[in-house]
């Protein structure tokens, strides 16, 4: 039996409860929400599973030591005393990432450097050979987190952020982060039981994430590598067993997913990415200007989630643009639940519809709102009668 240990899954602000739910569904124990993170307990196989299957996690960390620290000397000693030879060969390579919220320590780069010195000195003192720093492909990625006077040293089991799923070959300007896209779709309550649309689909991220949610496909199957694959206790057989068990839980999808974009290059990129993700059988993408479209199909309710362009990235008349969103939904999209995220809180006033929900989130550093508009069938007919 593998032994259990504590882990931390990092996420975006506002997604903590989604991640708690995901972890519980996967079988994690002792799950607790923090701010932008969730702590839980599991074994090595569960760590592999969490990296493969979680949609709203950015990283999975394995804490190995927590201690109080008031100056650089304390930090150096405590780090030096960790048995690093358990985790790394003297000829191996390492990279250190530090985050600091403390009045004693103000510079995260300096903390990373001090940590590196302590690890390297321990190896040098014990045998003369020391590991090298490799920022791109280290054998061991170490995370240092200092909150006031508490320092936690963790091994980063993910490596590159988990939003890099591996299916995107092409992106357009300001593509939406995959973890953000998956979280928005999950917050909107979409469960694959209706048609789905992203009318401003850009490079297709929202469409790919929606298809994976609908089919229960693990989001990180296409990743080239996780950091734990370079660890000394890497168990490829266990990993393959976990992968296989997750693939057995995929399900059929009996509805349609539509993507529109008025930029021909965006449509081309989106099609490439969707094909690369092996999701093209579920998704149809067209070169269309949303403001000139009608709702496709007469199926039951249409579920729409999108990320309209905002001032930071495109030269558009905000008030007019948001008014057009409202008009198009009202006139051409009956029986639709439309959700979109925006950081332009002023422009929202011009949509001309009353949102039934508003959720505070952050898109990168920008404070944003995820809003929901319920467009009922019949209001248009009533007008003409």
Automatic annotation (TrEMBL):
Classification via CDD domains: THUMP_AdoMetMT
Claim: Chaperone is one of the keywords in the record: no
Q: Does the keyword ATP-binding apply?
A: no
Q: Which UniProt keywords apply?
A: Methyltransferase, RNA-binding, Transferase
- Report the leader peptide range: none
SUPFAM superfamilies, alphabetically? S-adenosyl-L-methionine-dependent methyltransferases
Please name the InterPro entries in this protein's record.
Answer: RlmKL-like_Mtase (IPR000241), RlmL_1st (IPR054170), SAM-dependent_MTases_sf (IPR029063), THUMP_dom (IPR004114)
List the coiled-coil residues: none
What's one Pfam family here? RlmL_1st
Q: In this protein, which residues make up the domain named THUMP?
A: 46-157
What's the protein name? THUMP domain-containing protein
Species the sequence originates in = Mesoflavibacter profundi
């Amino acid at each position: 039996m593998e032994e259990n240990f504590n882990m931390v899954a990092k996420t975006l602000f506002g997604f903590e409860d989604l991640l708690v739910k995901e972890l519980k569904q996967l079988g994690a124990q002792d799950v607790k929400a923090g701010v932008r993170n969730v702590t839980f307990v599991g074994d090595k196989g569960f760590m592999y599973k969490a990296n493969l299957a979680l949609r709203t996690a950015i990283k999975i960390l394995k804490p190995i030591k927590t201690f109080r620290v008031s100056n650089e000397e304390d930090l150096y000693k405590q780090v030096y005393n960790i048995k690093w030879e358990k985790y790394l060969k003297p000829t191996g390579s390492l990279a250190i990432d530090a985050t600091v919220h403390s009045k004693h320590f103000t510079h995260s780069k300096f903390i990373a450097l001090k940590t590196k010195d302590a690890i390297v000195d321990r190896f040098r003192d014990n045998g003369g050979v020391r590991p090298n720093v490799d920022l791109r492909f280290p054998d061991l990625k170490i995370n240092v987190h200092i909150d006031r006077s508490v320092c936690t040293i963790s091994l980063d089991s993910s490596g590159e952020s988990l939003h890099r799923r591996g299916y995107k070959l092409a992106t357009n300007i300001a593509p939406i982060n995959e973890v953000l896209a998956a979280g928005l779709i999950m917050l909107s309550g979409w469960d694959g039981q209706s048609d789905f649309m992203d009318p401003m689909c850009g490079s297709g991220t929202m469409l790919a994430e929606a298809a994976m949610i609908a089919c229960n496909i693990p989001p990180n199957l296409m990743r080239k590598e996780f950091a734990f694959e370079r660890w000394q206790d890497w168990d490829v057989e266990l990993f393959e067993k976990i992968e296989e068990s997750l693939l057995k839980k995929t399900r059929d999808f009996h509805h349609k997913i539509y993507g529109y974009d008025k930029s021909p290059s965006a449509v081309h990129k989106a099609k490439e990415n969707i094909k690369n993700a092996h999701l093209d059988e579920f998704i149809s993408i067209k070169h269309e200007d949303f403001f000139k479209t009608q709702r496709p199909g007469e199926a039951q309710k249409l579920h729409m989630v999108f990320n309209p362009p905002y001032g930071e990235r495109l030269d558009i008349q905000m008030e007019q643009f948001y008014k057009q969103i409202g008009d198009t939904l009202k006139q051409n999209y009956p029986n639709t639940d439309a959700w979109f995220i925006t950081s332009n809180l002023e422009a929202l006033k011009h949509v001309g519809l009353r949102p039934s929900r508003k959720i505070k989130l952050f898109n990168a550093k920008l404070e944003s709102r995820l809003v929901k508009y319920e467009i009922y069938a019949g209001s248009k007919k009533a007008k003409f009668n």
